[in-house]
Amino acid sequence: MKLLKVDTIDEARRKIADAVKEKGRKTVKKGILDAVGYVLAEDICCSEPVPAFRRSTVDGYAVRSLDTGGASENMPVFLKITGEVQMGCPAEMKLHAGECVYVPTGGMVPDGADAMVMVEFCELFSSEEAAVYKAVSCGAYVVQAGEDMKAGEAVLKRGRKIRPQEAGALAALGITGVQVYEPFCISIISTGDELVSPQEAPSPGQVRDINTYGLHALALKLNFRIQHETVLRDDRTLLKNTVKSFMPDSDIVVVSGGSSQGKKDVTASVIEEIASEGVFTHGLALKPGKPTITGYDEPSGTLLLGLPGHPAAAMMVFEILAGWLWRELTGEKEAFGITAVMSTNLPSAPGRQTCQLVKLKKEEDGQNVAVPVLGSSGLITILTKADGYVITGEHAEGLKKGEQVTVYLF
């Protein structure tokens, strides 16, 4: 049986990567606000120090820290006020011993000063003299030139997803546009004579379509673009024609259902027929997720991905393969897992990696505990009850109570 000649996750990933490596990933230039949510396709280096001058982080007086030595509420130090710095203007004066200058928050700290005293710890005795009631150390409440970003420093690396904070950093550098990776264009096909839309009341033997919506939402979470989606009855010719029509403008065509070895499960034969490279994975050494099929069409540059019909399995395999491929091509970092200990013994399928859904609980001592969420991969609610999943080794007999694991969060 072909389905018994399964690939491990790593083997399936390697075959996919080998197939698509020549295509690479397209890039496009976007304005920094439009680029939020995209992945950087270039390194961003700082061409100038940020800030370009020393800035005060408080409203107060610029001083020489040595002049405030010993100052306290009972014994203030008296300093001569020699000027005031205006916001947005250079500090043209120079501070000497025994002097101070008023500087607003964000204002330029004048030469000669090495610290700021908050206005709350100062008292004016006249327009020319201030009492300082607190000693400060060198550098107090002062942001040094280049402290945020140094000239020549690599500020953002290729593979960084642009969030609002990255957009702010780019603006600080005077960069208004960046090269980003174009997201995958995904087409989703759900198959099954039993499927009806969520708006319909299913008759006996029918079920509402879950996979189209679950995979669509997961693709959006991964910042992919949905190109086409449809639900098809179990008909080989219809499936073949639909896949072919979606391929020219899709990076990935996903078919959920029809990937096991039932009489109407024809996804593998369709991919074998229409993909130039044919099927290169027919079965994944993963539970759930064994009936997974992958193939590649060189002329259109399309990855063809046949997923299990069970919703939980389909969504997890999509993340494990399509999500991984995106990170592999763009350099985007995988989300960090959370370390936890198992709440109970958990057996696994021999010869296969097991993807086990878990929910997290925190003990009084702060320890994270992974509690298995049990149920068939055909039940969508097991995903709603889970915080993430753990993967057991291919040759492991399972996980033991108290064993440390990595939980990959949804």
TrEMBL record:
Residues 187-328 form the MoaB/Mog domain. SUPFAM superfamilies: MoeA C-terminal domain-like, MoeA N-terminal region -like, Molybdenum cofactor biosynthesis proteins. GO terms for biological process: Mo-molybdopterin cofactor biosynthetic process. The keyword Metal-binding applies. Keywords: Magnesium, Metal-binding, Molybdenum, Molybdenum cofactor biosynthesis, Transferase. One of its GO terms (cellular component) is cytosol. Pfam families: MoCF_biosynth, MoeA_C, MoeA_N. The keyword Magnesium applies. Pathway: Cofactor biosynthesis; molybdopterin biosynthesis. InterPro entries: MoaB/Mog-like_dom_sf (IPR036425), MoaB/Mog_dom (IPR001453), MoeA-like (IPR038987), MoeA_C_domain_IV (IPR005111), MoeA_C_domain_IV_sf (IPR036688), MoeA_linker/N (IPR005110), MoeA_linker/N_sf (IPR036135). Its EC number is 2.10.1.1. Its cofactor is Mg(2+). Belongs to the MoeA family. Catalyzes the insertion of molybdate into adenylated molybdopterin with the concomitant release of AMP. This is Molybdopterin molybdenumtransferase. It comes from Faecalicatena orotica.
